[in-house]
User: Which sequence fits this backbone?
């Protein structure tokens, strides 16, 4: 019998052991995020927001709507409307409150896939507290921007030093789905076809030879 890897980056995560947390995706903050160009950033968030429905994962949304923070981004509001658990009232940078801790305990999940605004503040502090409380933490870095490349780099380094694993939304999507011929394959490919080209260069025209982009397995 093979011994499971102790390293979180090797152990990875699955739909059976993972919960999703979306941190402070509100209109009053997203325009302050500049380390990822705005169109790419919103594209990446839209892709990440589709994980909840595709994989049926327990989903928590942190943040609040008011005159300062604005409203939730439409993609995140759609998750709330679909039944995502909200944790809106807090006075701390970390979202790991007693309420969130109890919700996670009840899900029975051991890993958390997390992304949000900003990577050097609320996403960082929430991730660190999740690690302190025994969770495997995978931070989706291309949906977790800030307004300083130096601060972003420092946050990612601290997360790695603490034991979190940085991933991209594409990496996370394919790790959860595992097989394009499997039950999640069509949904995975639809997300990739829609969002992957724009994740690094913005909206682009399809330049594949047949004009149909990446194709599903036969």
Assistant:
């Amino acid at each position: 019998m093979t011994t499971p890897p102790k390293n979180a980056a090797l152990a990875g995560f699955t739909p059976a052991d993972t919960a999703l947390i979306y941190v402070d995706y509100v209109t009053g903050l997203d325009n302050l995020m500049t380390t990822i160009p705005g169109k790419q950033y919103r594209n990446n968030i839209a892709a990440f927001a589709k994980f909840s429905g595709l994989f049926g994962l327990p989903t928590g949304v942190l943040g609040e709507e008011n005159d300062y923070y604005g409203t939730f981004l439409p993609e995140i509001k759609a998750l709330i409307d679909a039944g995502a658990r909200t944790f809106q009232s807090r006075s701390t940078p970390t979202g790991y409150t007693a309420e969130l801790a109890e919700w996670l305990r009840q899900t029975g999940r051991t890993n958390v896939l997390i992304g949000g605004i900003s990577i050097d503040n609320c996403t960082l502090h929430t991730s660190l507290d999740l690690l302190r409380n025994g969770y495997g933490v995978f931070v989706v870095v291309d949906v977790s921007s800030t307004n300083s490349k130096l601060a972003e780099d420092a946050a990612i380094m601290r997360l790695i030093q603490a034991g979190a694993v940085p991933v991209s939304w594409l990496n996370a999507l394919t790790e959860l789905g595992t097989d394009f011929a499997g039950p999640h394959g069509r949904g995975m490919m639809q997300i990739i076809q829609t969002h992957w080209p724009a994740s690094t260069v913005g909206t682009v025209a399809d330049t594949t030879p047949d004009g149909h982009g990446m194709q599903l397995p036969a």
